[in-house]
Amino acid sequence: MSVAFSMSRDQPKNNDPGEDINFLISLPKVPNSPTYPWWQIPSHNRNNLEADPDWEFHRNSKLANFESWGIVFNSFASLESVYFEHLKREVGHNRVWAVGPVLPLEGDLIGSATRGGASSGPCHELMTWLNAHLDNSVVYVCFGSRAVLTSKQLNVLATALECSGVHFILCARVPDDQGSILDEFRDRVGDSGLVIKGWAPQVAILRHQAVGSFLTYCGWNSVLEGLISRVVMLTWPMGTEQFTKALLLVDQSGVAIRAGEGTQNIPDSNELARLMVVSLNKIKPQNVRAKELSDAALSAIKGGSSDKDLDELIKQLADIKKLE
């Protein structure tokens, strides 16, 4: 949110005469001074036409969010404390609370299996398949409910999974004209992996001991679900704020490995296959950080920073009620 606030208040400018899409945009007022190539800046921040009433409405709506009485985040201090403190300074008060991660409790089988919607395949069949595999031997791949890979990207991903030799679960949303790619891929790999067209019980999958890494598009719910599950993440952000989440995970938290970027860029299949194998190596620094951040997240909601922030939020809301 620090990045979103900074971009809304101080619109980024591409000062390259040719408007090079790789022109680097720095945000010096944000902690760690993150830098992004121009093409990763959200379109509503790139098309900053002051005379356009639609653009002005969008920008003012964004800024209005930061004029709220208080701001509540589904996050935790050990992951983003420097940004919460920055935001408090920017909005001029301390009513900024991190109360997450808000997820089904460990052992909540129903909540873990149904979070996000109904699965496109029987959950018990997935669990049976996972139970047959060694701990930390499976790569889970999912790009969420909206992102759609191009045919070239899907072919590269399938080739990488096949060449890597790892066991995997691939959950993908594909248009009808790409369905044959997954069908042929499923036939080739056999029992080495599971291919799901549609939605899968992501929390239940990630929390299974057989899953060691997670190739993700970096949606925030997926990020939190991956962190709490102690898996290494391979990042492939597709757009908007997902690039900022990937930078947080890879460069600042050290819990993830960069695998791809964008809706049109096509990674090298051999390199992607190598990263999948590496991600299952339990002595990698990212594996150590995954455990550390998972422990920090659990501590935050069990008497730690998030627990205390939630108590303070409730107290302040109760105080407002008393004044009415």
From TrEMBL:
<dbReference type="InterPro" id="IPR002213">
    <property type="entry name" value="UDP_glucos_trans"/>
</dbReference>
<keyword id="KW-0328">Glycosyltransferase</keyword>
<keyword id="KW-0808">Transferase</keyword>
<protein>
    <submittedName>
        <fullName>Uncharacterized protein</fullName>
    </submittedName>
</protein>
<comment type="similarity">
    <text>Belongs to the UDP-glycosyltransferase family.</text>
</comment>
<dbReference type="Pfam" id="PF00201">
    <property type="entry name" value="UDPGT"/>
</dbReference>
<feature type="region of interest" description="Disordered">
    <location>
        <begin position="1"/>
        <end position="20"/>
    </location>
</feature>
<dbReference type="GO" id="GO:0035251">
    <property type="term" value="F:UDP-glucosyltransferase activity"/>
</dbReference>
